[in-house]
Specification:
Helix content is 0%, strand content 65%. The chain is mostly beta strands.
Length: 92
């Protein structure tokens, strides 16, 4: 499965009144999704369903930025883990 993902970060330290210019990256990531569900009939006209989807992206993303005013010659990096889970339970 291919998904286009945009990761952004803007570090800030409010106590020191610091806000970084931040950084971002956009890329197409490849991973896989696994899902499962169950349905149970409570009465003739009422049933309960539960579903779940889990997405796994084997590639973690690192975003780099520079802030020459506050950190001259340094590079700031932040890593993103783009895995996720969606679950829902409902009555039908």
């Amino acid at each position: 499965m291919a998904v286009e993902v945009e990761n952004r970060f803007t570090p800030s330290i409010p106590e020191f009144r610091y806000n970084s210019p931040g950084g971002s990256t956009r890329d197409t990531l490849y991973g896989y999704t696994v899902g499962a569900g169950v349905k149970h009939k409570l009465t003739q006209s009422v049933s309960l369903r539960a579903e779940g989807l889990s997405h796994y992206d084997p590639e973690n993303t690192t975003v780099f930025a520079t802030d020459p005013a506050s950190f001259p010659g340094q590079r700031i990096s932040y890593g993103f883990d783009n895995d996720g889970f969606i679950g829902r339970v409902f009555q039908s």
